[in-house]
Amino acid sequence: MASTTPHRIGILGGTFDPIHLGHLAIAEAARDRLDLDRVILIPAGRPWLKSGQQVTSADHRLAMVKLAVEDRPELEVSSIEIERPGPTYTVDTLAEMRDEKGNEAELYFILGMDSIRELRRWHEPERLFDMCTVVAVSRPDSVDISTAEIECEFPVAHDRIKTIRGPMLDISATDIRQRITDSRSISDSVPPPVEQYIHEHSLYVAAPNRREAADHADTTLRLPDRHE
Ligand code: ATP
């Protein structure tokens, strides 16, 4: 009997502070281009590379990701990184996903070109290529990196790296947070339910360097010095 378990699974990790249309567009581009059965969005619990930065609480970030995918059946959300104690390492997430999905699953880890340029700073980056195929998607303001360049830096990446010329949406969470602080519209950058959630919970209203002092101590995390 044919199995209904999806075999080709995309994984898009991120801080998602907040999730935006750029994230959804790269998830969908990867799904279409690589014929993935589904893409799982995984908000980071303790993103140790965003060192010294303030990050909105995991509960809010997870809630926004759930709202963003609610009318997109090809996208799913997982809270495994939020539930796991300690710093968030992608290799641990992939190991958990492998256990959950079984040996037959083909795992594709999706990330933007800016992130792949930082791979050397990640925790055990070589192991990533043992555990999945890495998919780097173009991003405005980030110069594309070729598979040959990546293989040169990580010989283990051979046959385990793909690049996609993505939808090139010039959207970043940093810009969205700044726009809210400046009382400018974010309607063109996030799905409507996410925009509504942000306003209902008064997220990002204070400038980053004032947020700590504001009455938001319960909605933000102070992160340790490293994140991924
Ligand atoms: P910030 O501005 O706070 O750094 P971000 O917009 O880059 O946030 P993240 O949650 O850090 O969002 O990104 C998660 C993943 O999605 C990363 O691999 C990042 O490179 C990728 N990504 C985010 N926005 C885009 C975009 N507009 N185009 C392509 N890739 C993107």
What does this structure look like?
The protein starts with 7 loop residues before the first strand and ends in a 6-residue tail after the last strand. The longest helix has 14 residues, at 21-34. The protein has helices at 21-34, 58-69, 80-83, 90-101, 113-116, 125-131, 147-153, 173-181, 192-200, 208-211; strands spanning 8-14, 38-43, 54-56, 75-77, 106-112, 133-137, 161-164, 220-222. It is of the alpha/beta class and 228 residues long. Adenosine-5'-triphosphate (ATP) binds at residues 14-17, 22-23, 26, 111-112, 114-115, 137, 139, 166, 169, 171-174.
Mean pLDDT: 88
Shape: globular
Helix-strand sequence: EHEEHEHHEHHEHEHHHE
Task: Report the sheet-strand fraction.
Answer: 15-25%
Please give the order of strands in the largest beta sheet. 4-2-1-5-6-7
Helical region count? 10
Proportion in helices: 25-40%
Question: Could you tell me which ligands this complex binds, including any ions or cofactors?
Answer: adenosine-5'-triphosphate
List the helices and strands and how they pair.
Layout: E1 8-14, H1 21-34, E2 38-43, E3 54-56, H2 58-69, E4 75-77, H3 80-83, H4 90-101, E5 106-112, H5 113-116, H6 125-131, E6 133-137, H7 147-153, E7 161-164, H8 173-181, H9 192-200, H10 208-211, E8 220-222
Parallel strand pairs: 1-2, 1-5, 2-4, 5-6, 6-7
Antiparallel strand pairs: 3-8
Helix pairs in contact: 2-9, 4-6
